[in-house]
Amino acid sequence: MPYDSTSFEQYMSQQHDRFVAEFAQFIAVPSVAAQNRSITTMADLVANRLRQLGAAVTVYQTPGSPVVYAELGPRNAARTLMIYNHYDVQPEDPAELWTSEPFTLTIKDGRMVGRGTSADKGELLSRIQAVEAWLKTQGELPVRIKWVVEGEEEVGSVHLGEWVLAHADMLRADGILWEGGGYDEEGRMTFGLGGKGLAEFELHCQGPNHDLHSSVAPLVVNPAWRLVWALSTLKDQDDNITLDGYVEHVRPLTDEEWARIDAVPMPFEAMRHRWGITGWLQGLDDHAARRRYLGAPTITICGIHSGYGGLGSKTVLPAEASCKLDFRLVDGLTSDLAERLLREHLDKRGFADITITALGHEEFAASAPGSLAERAAVAASERVWGKTPVILPWYAGSGPVHQLSTVLDIPVVFAGATWHPDIRAHSPNENIFVKDYFESMRFTAAFLELFATLDA
Amino acid sequence: MPYDSTSFEQYMSQQHDRFVAEFAQFIAVPSVAAQNRSITTMADLVANRLRQLGAAVTVYQTPGSPVVYAELGPRNAARTLMIYNHYDVQPEDPAELWTSEPFTLTIKDGRMVGRGTSADKGELLSRIQAVEAWLKTQGELPVRIKWVVEGEEEVGSVHLGEWVLAHADMLRADGILWEGGGYDEEGRMTFGLGGKGLAEFELHCQGPNHDLHSSVAPLVVNPAWRLVWALSTLKDQDDNITLDGYVEHVRPLTDEEWARIDAVPMPFEAMRHRWGITGWLQGLDDHAARRRYLGAPTITICGIHSGYGGLGSKTVLPAEASCKLDFRLVDGLTSDLAERLLREHLDKRGFADITITALGHEEFAASAPGSLAERAAVAASERVWGKTPVILPWYAGSGPVHQLSTVLDIPVVFAGATWHPDIRAHSPNENIFVKDYFESMRFTAAFLELFATLDA
To answer: Could you tell me if B393 and B354 lie in one domain?
Structure first.
């Protein structure tokens, strides 16, 4: 029996301004995990908001950010849904490129702009508010909900895996509603069943004990040069990974998997236009690009810094050089393998002095097609928008899916509703549309009902 | 007839505190040419200080920093000495490594610490004060002085050459007293007859129009990778320059020149200790290191910057990447050659998209041994310190020597007195000793007299 959408809609309308004001409160907390800023403040804010739903909430301390865990809904419900979100955000750098304050929710032309609007506070709070609306208008929830809201997603969910292992019994569920998901340039809803893995490293090379006048360059080892030389051995100029013994571990995809990838519509022309580029790397055509996007591992320089970077020139030989790398992992690759091979590769080439610090990691994970969670997401999309969503076998992005879905053996679906083609997640002027924030509530309500009622 | 050193010393003593206070005023002006900070303020301060000597001073405007030009001393003097100094300084970055305010003269343990103390405000002002002391205690100067104080030395003296060409007649002189020079770990005075050239470039690679989520790395060209690949083709991992067609232009040194280089004492052990390193690049022994130091060209990464550099990680594909390079030029190489070959080299390897901006340049220049200026410097050193100085055929560093000495055909000597082995020029905590600041005045007085009186 469908829930009563009329009263639900009415409640959303009545509470519109309060819901937006609450969202502004969430955005105002600069919960940057990479810099350990305002993390406990944000965890407490989330915990208190969940308690307002009547949930039993525990804030679990970890060596890093706390995990906020909430249970609500009938204990005797036939099905249990895990919901995954995170309350941490990316740094706001480069701060000067924002057109409004990064941590002030700014509404303009129907968009809500601010760090964390799309990743992941918009989904988190709109789902919480959807549950509130359900409770206020429909009564009891149709499922038991186990809500995991972590605070280290943007730094590789460093401590989540250990927490999951310690609470595996508590976390049993029939499906996981993940973060992420939305619509593309042509309005197609896009959901997914997993994500690539991610291994993040910082490389550091130390030279002299202070910046020297560059006239000593004939004598003194320059750490910036050493880092450049070391990096240049990891990928060739055509962007092929040349890390020793690495790509051999990639599991070849099956024809069925390639077919699922080939079926993913991607708005390539719009993507190029939006990013201001004229073509893909290696001159790939769109068909090959789609396969590489989902099927290929990456090694990305996310940042490299050494010496003087201000206006004009400064004739120094830098004291040190650092670089942040991320590896996106497809099936067959693991973060441990990446770290071990990277160390061996550098050592073998005379770069033993370059240190590697692991910053965070996630493993490749993808659920098999056909799960209850996936079917509930598809049916909810059809009901709310009249659209059958595209289902990606896995996203090119990453999340701690392995740590919850694979380890606990619970099928997952990435089925958020707030992502649009220009959300600028992780970039300046991150945003979502106001209308999608409220669509997310409608979708959540439909998903809860369908997850409770579809055939197993 | 030697000047009366007793009255000169007395005057220095009497004026000690005022002289130091004036120096503090000079240091307090953050005349960073690279950032066009306080340049006109500093030019005016220098001009006014020279006017207090009774000099005829003109501040020449250029498209960049003004050139302060002063003439003083008898018009009918038998000899004319040009003095070269500069009033601009390097940026204070990394500012957090200073133990005192960069632009506040701070005296501690006999050292005067502040940006510009050694390069070049200490030499400049102590010479001005030496002339004042001469005029107050000895009467008329023994030579005509033409003083060139420019404001773009730290950015490659971009506009000095054009100014020199426009005023070549005005600038005739019998010798040039340059900036730079001092003593090493073992107390040896060290002067020089020129310097390597310098060509400074900024390389820039543009990627997408904003930082993207790194999940798109299989598709989108990463400008940080492109810059790394391009740079890695310029020098091999053993620090040998591999820029196409470049080192072939180096003029082989004569046996006599190698002998002069081999005769330069260098405190290698102390240098390594001071810089916190255990050996030289390529495992060079000290003999080979000395030859490479003065005889080899360089390509130095002075800075490289792209993407995220803060704490922790940020999974972005950067929108752009930049790098500052400096080339130290030995005889046979020119800045034009470096720029042309760099462009060709990058184009040939598929890096036509990487832009090159020339930031400043100076050409290799060295005077032949035996000039009046050199002999006056040697004799002044012997008189003031009882020490015969080491004469370098040229420094490993650079200055606009070519633009004045070569173009005008006037022999030059680098003969400052304030440099000690730990001045940290261009680095945090740049400093000179108070005692050397006043030694510089003694040396200047002796030099003026000897330049006027030695056999031609």
So the answer is: no
